[in-house]
Amino acid sequence: MAHKKAGGSSRNGRDSAGRRLGVKKFGSEAVLAGNIIVRQRGTKWHPGVNVGMGTDHTLFALTAGKVQFITKRGRAFVTVVANDAAPALEAAE
Fold it and tell me: pTM score > 0.90 for this model?
């Protein structure tokens, strides 16, 4: 007859991998059309001029240019300012 109670199994001990969220292209950084600017859950940043939003709230550039983060009416917006150097940068690739 056992004098020690059987040890129960632990219900903890596992963790999920990080989702790699956050800003991928920072302010005044050059982007090409389709480049991901921000990966996020929900809308911490809203899409501004020349920026699109995916179904998972990912913000991406619609045109080549420079990234700009601005605040309007208490909301953070991400815009892409198109510049003349951007088409030359795209042609070089």
Answer: no
